[in-house]
């Protein structure tokens, strides 16, 4: 005899696998990785287990007049990223920029945002340093705390062209404040996690010249 109770229990059992699909599994894994890279009791402006120079810790500062809220400005001289806020303020973060000859000043648009992205080196990177990058040519580096793009990535475009430049997290936090990357802007992972949640697709990014001259 099939009872109402049996039917309800059976339906619940059948429904359970649907609740644990790839999206939920990925989200759970992302949460686990976020916990791994975020210091216990993390405070955006004071936590510093990475030993950064104090000036490179995030700070809310006064923004220059006339800047558009939501835009990002990267000072390549001081190694600061400014995210402009409403009300005349900006959140300032310490960053690393591209090594000599690899940093590309210009005006870009964020057209993609990703949590715990997969990373694949460009053909130029592989040609330049095959011993370092060739092993990731097919399929790329899987996401996770050791991934070169870290926990979050903002993808920079010129029109509809992906420039392969990113603002991203890094598993090498001691590089912050230096010229260390292959052209991208690096941030400490908990810092870009905070930035990521406040940045929208379509935002404009200004990467200023290393000599401080106008774009």
Automatic annotation (TrEMBL):
Listed GO biological process terms: cell wall organization; peptidoglycan-protein cross-linking; regulation of cell shape
InterPro entries with a match to the protein in the record: LD-transpeptidase, LD_TPept_cat_dom, Transpep_catalytic_dom
EC number: 2.-.-.-
GO cellular component: extracellular region
Alphabetical UniProt keywords: Cell shape, Cell wall biogenesis/degradation, Glycosyltransferase, Hydrolase, Peptidoglycan synthesis, Signal, Transferase
Domain L,D-TPase catalytic: 70-208
Keyword Cell wall biogenesis/degradation assigned: yes
Active site per UniProt: 168 (proton donor/acceptor), 184 (nucleophile)
CDD domains: YkuD_like (cd16913)
Pathway stated in the Swiss-Prot or TrEMBL entry: Cell wall biogenesis; peptidoglycan biosynthesis
Signal sequence annotation: 1-25
Protein family: Belongs to the YkuD family.
Name assigned to this protein: Putative L,D-transpeptidase YnhG
Naturally occurring in which organism (per UniProt): Tropicibacter naphthalenivorans
């Amino acid at each position: 005899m099939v009872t109402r109770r049996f039917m309800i229990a059976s339906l619940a059992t059948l429904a359970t696998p649907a609740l644990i699909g790839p999206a939920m599994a990925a989200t759970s894994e992302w949460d686990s990785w976020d916990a791994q890279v975020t210091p216990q009791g993390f405070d955006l402006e004071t936590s510093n287990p990475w030993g950064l120079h104090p000036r490179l810790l995030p700070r809310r500062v006064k923004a220059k007049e006339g800047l558009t809220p939501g835009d990002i400005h990267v000072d390549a001289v001081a190694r600061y990223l400014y995210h402009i806020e409403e009300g005349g303020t900006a959140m300032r973060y310490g960053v690393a920029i591209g090594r000599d000859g690899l940093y590309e000043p210009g005006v870009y648009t964020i057209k993609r945002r990703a949590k715990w992205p997969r990373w694949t080196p460009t053909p130029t990177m592989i040609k330049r340093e095959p011993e370092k990058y060739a092993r990731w040519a097919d399929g790329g580096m899987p996401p996770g705390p050791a991934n070169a793009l870290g926990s979050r990535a903002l993808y920079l475009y010129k029109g509809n062209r992906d420039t392969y430049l990113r603002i991203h997290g890094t598993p090498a936090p001691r590089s912050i404040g230096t010229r260390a990357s292959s052209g991208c802007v690096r941030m400490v992972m908990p810092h870009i996690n905070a930035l990521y949640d406040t940045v929208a697709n379509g935002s404009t990014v200004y990467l200023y010249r290393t000599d401080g001259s106008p774009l």
